[in-house]
Specification:
The protein is of the alpha+beta class. The chain has a single domain, classed as Beta Complex (Metal Binding Protein, Guanine Nucleotide Exchange Factor, Chain A). The chain has 3 helices and 10 strands. The strands form 2 sheets. A 7-stranded mixed β-sheet has the order 6-7-8-9-4-3-10. Strands 1-2-5 form a 3-stranded antiparallel β-sheet, with no helix packed on it. It is globular, with a radius of gyration of 17 Å. The model has no long low-confidence stretch (mean pLDDT 86).
Length: 160
């Protein structure tokens, strides 16, 4: 049996975590709570039981969004990192906070009642696509001045 270790963390690197098994039920959630928590039209999550989750740096800041769950985020940079059921039996990390999000494709939808009508059509039919910057020079400038933590564990925080 191959050991699984998927790592992730926040944008600044203050909070890092590891999943010790392949997440179950990776999903896209369209509910209004996820929209507000992510500041976007949906959230993406992949979960494991708490015994398969490990914080490897820092601590979560927590906001209890309902009697059912809590949202975890980094208090330093604000990155949304996870959702945890208040019963303690499940923790679902945001797929975008994984170092290798391509390894965890969503397989289901939740929160259909909150789905934004134009979201799927916008993604499927946008006329133009581009990189991060407005121009090649702008993209290079962003890369050179990037303060984002790298997509892997580091020995120190903040990075040297």
């Amino acid at each position: 049996m191959t050991a699984v270790r998927l790592t992730g963390g926040c944008q600044c690197g203050a909070v890092r975590y590891a999943l010790l098994k392949q997440p179950e039920r990776p999903s896209v959630c369209h509910c209004r709570m996820c929209q507000k928590a992510m500041g976007n039209v949906f959230g993406t999550f992949a979960g494991v039981e708490p015994e398969h989750f490990e914080l490897t740096r820092g601590e979560f800041s927590v906001f209890r969004t309902s009697d059912e769950g809590e949202r975890m985020f980094c208090s330093q940079c604000g990155t949304p990192l996870a959702w945890r059921g208040t019963g303690g039996g499940w923790i679902a990390v945001t797929i975008g906070s994984l170092d290798e999000p391509e390894r965890v494709p969503p397989i289901r939808f939740y929160g259909e009642e909150g789905r934004i009508s134009w979201a799927a059509a916008a993604v499927a039919h946008l006329a133009t696509a581009s990189g991060t910057g407005r121009s090649p020079g702008h993209s290079d400038h962003i890369r050179r001045t990037n303060r984002q933590h790298p997509d892997h564990d580091t020995a120190h925080w903040p990075p040297e």
